[in-house]
What we know:
Chain A is about 30% helix and about 20% strand. By secondary structure, chain A is α/β, with parallel strands linked by helices.
Amino acid sequence: xxxxAYPILRLPRRFTVFDYAIPEGTSVxxxxxxxxxxxxxxxxxxxxxxxxxxxxxxVLDITSGSxxxxxxxxxxxxxxxxxxxxxxxxxxxxxVAYEGLNPYPPSKDFPSRRNNENIGHSxxxxxxxxxxxxxxxxxxxxxxxxRTIALACDDETFCVLAHAICKTTTNQVVILAPRERDARLIxxxxxxxxxxxxxxxxxxxxxxxxxRSWRNGDTRILVGTRQSVLAAAQSLGAVLVYQSGCEDHGxxxxxxxxxxxxxxxxxAQSANSIFVSADVFPTPSAxxxxxxxxxxxxxxxxxxxxxxxxxxYPLMSQTLLESIKLALQSQKRVLLSFNRKGVAKRxxxxxxxxxxxxxxxxxLPMVRLDDLLCTACGTEMWRPTTCPACxxxxxxxxxxxxxxxxxxxxxxxxxxxxxxxxxxxxxxNANIILATEFFFSSVIEPFATYNxxxxxxxxxxxxxxxxxxxxxxxxxxxxxxxxxxAYREHAECIIQTLTRxxxxxxxxAEYVNRVELEARKKYSLPPFGIVVEFEGETKETLPIEIGNxxxxxxxxxxxxxxxxxxxxxxxxxxxxxxxPDSIKIRVSE
Amino acid sequence: MIVFVGITPCxxxxxxxxxxxxxxxxxxxxxxxxxxxxxLFATHPDTVxxxxxxxxxxxxxxAMNVADPYTATLAAFGDLGYTQxxxxxxxxADKAQRELRKDGIPVTLVTESDLPFGATVPLDFLRAHxxxxxxxxxxPCGLTPKEHFDFGAALRSILVESPxxxxxxxxxxxxxxxxxxxxxxxxxxxxQSDDLLETLIAQxxxxxxxxxxxxxxxxxxxxxxxxxxxxFGTLDGMPxxxxxxxxxxxxxxxxxxxxxxxx
Lengths: 589, 263
């Protein structure tokens, strides 16, 4: 007998199943994780099928039979689909899903010394208002009719909902968080259910224990990052996604480029379980009905170019300055969101338009007060006084950065302390906090109180990135996030903008969701179409017969991309294994 | 443990940044290099031992280049923006030189932080998915082919005993006289030499390789022969199946890509 097995190992996309002979007396079944020889070493593999013959000339024996871990056929099929959609080898996806799994069952007598770190620690009971409880009741009622929903809610409501679902269901519950920190926060709030945490920082020994325990059904609540939704469960009751719109769920910098939210949805579908994709503004979906619990505080949209709003400080309207002043007088703090580091966006020559880039890696450097700093490679450069291209002295700063805003705040409110929170720099105690995205991803916590009197976005239009169809969605999410924070803090919410009418249309999750879906349908964008990107130095060797579609080159990113329908995508999927691994394939669906 | 053995060309003309207009002419070799890089990636090596010419090669001893870091650039070929850094496998280099000297093999250590194009170009393809792999470049010398073979055989015993997963690459362009615009002009011996070399690699014919006609090599201006002999030395006594992935000479220089699949 022969076993066709997938090695659990990162492999190029054209590598599929390998044939192995099953020695007499060894019992192997489909889905069993076995040990197999592969390229002069022994690795784990998953049995895809068992046949009586093989077309291979030379076949090696499997090293050992089942290690006591089985992946159900339905889960294996799910992983095959994920690999096919991503244009990656099944082995690579299995490697992510079962990273840390080893042939040795965990010893109950000698638990890891770090074991306790993998169980959420209890937090002091947070204050939950009646409105949140009512919202959660609404969601629970809705889940009785719709098993899968997109939920527009704040982080606190999500935590209470997760708690309620964990309490009511007897089956396993998996909670997907975008980052390790979030997983630990959520696990801490669910500590009474003794959840396990599965993130990239869990040591392999504990991973092995968690994966086995999850598979056997001994672990009932699993909170983690992407691996948690790839691993097979025993009897899944609910899949909850925290901050489903967060880009960290599908970081293009991490290989394989798995969109964990889609994987979570597929997991819920295959297990016929509850699926909740929650965020302040979830990604518009054609299949998931949207349920909105609360839109937060109504914001004041302030047109910064309006005459009446002129102030001595650029990007600081009179309305905002007045509100900050009032908040400080009332002993309240101020949160200003502005996602741009440095004193300016870039340097630019007014004579020839030349923009100095990093001489080492070619990235756009951050402009600091005295010099330029490349955030990609860490190179520091002098700020040129004359244009390096044409020699003109007309080289100067273009646009405004966070450091300039902080400098202006110092001048406008000399009695207040200004904290500029960005990666690697946190000042919690300042009266005025000027925050980048880092604050929202790594500092702010659900149920914490910050005593904010004003919550404001310095320029709400910054996230309308050209070339990215998700610009409106991201902007709507940022506004919703501030509105919810203002609501919790009973603070005033101010959004400054250059395009007031455009931003006005992005208020209200239900409305934005409907309008966005209509626009995407019109232009065949996800979720109604698929965007496939190809990136790599050998893109010119792409097979021309790839659907006979014209691939568009994006001048900004030098990527080739195409918008295609689902039928064409099915044809393309078959061609993906023929494309060399040096070309990255990214699929947005 | 030796986990991978391959033969690659090292022409910078394979790189689009150096040869943007005519890189399409060498597509077959480039595809073969990509395939080879995927096969190498599948073996997940810790160290790549690469036989290639160094800038300064002693005539009477094999030179191991140990520098930390190695810097690979292509400025000499017009690509001013290309910079890659690699790190050496100090432990392996130290063990190899001690053991080889004990066996009376002439070995010397050199430090050239600028990696020669003989290593830069193949590594550009091969290291695409292996960013943390260590390298150990070893250069051939003026000694006889038999001595090159013996060096390879002596090195094999050290590499086989190593707990690390080691890949061996022989890097070099074959004859430089395959067309009128070739660096060495047109000589029929160039094609004869390359064809014979391809046959001997395909047959894994060590005896034939050691008896290769010197005149063919000299007139054909071959620059890969010695590296391939060293590579065959490391395969001495090991069962392996040869697989020629491509052989072409679009710019008048023979380029062979091959993998010797270990059993």
